[in-house]
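Work through this:
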Amino acid sequence: MSFSRLPRPVPNAYFLNRASPASPLFRSTSHERPMVTLRIVRHDRDSVLAECASSVVPARGEVVQLDTIDASGEKSRPSTLWRVVSVTLHVPSLMSAAPVDGSRLSVQQV
């Protein structure tokens, strides 16, 4: 994802799985949402600002708040706000090999 710094509140992000439980697209047997690796990159400086597991993907134009936390979960620095410029989904092509663990091909990184 590409970001530009902008101080604004964070709007709602989009959920990865919008399919209803009755839909064949919804294959999870638990109530957990699927997780992907969300990586936030500042392209003008070629640096990774954050990387974590996420069940939501922010849309272009939204703002994300980055927090720096210590081992006890407390904020250790002031938060920074970043506007989403672009979102890249790393989608495996039809020519991709099946995962070794037998699971289905899926988006693993955003």
The chain has a mean pLDDT of 75. The first strand starts at residue 2 and ends at 5. The two ends are 7 Å apart (CA to CA). The beta strands are 2-5, 14-15, 36-42, 47-54, 56-57, 63-66, 80-86.
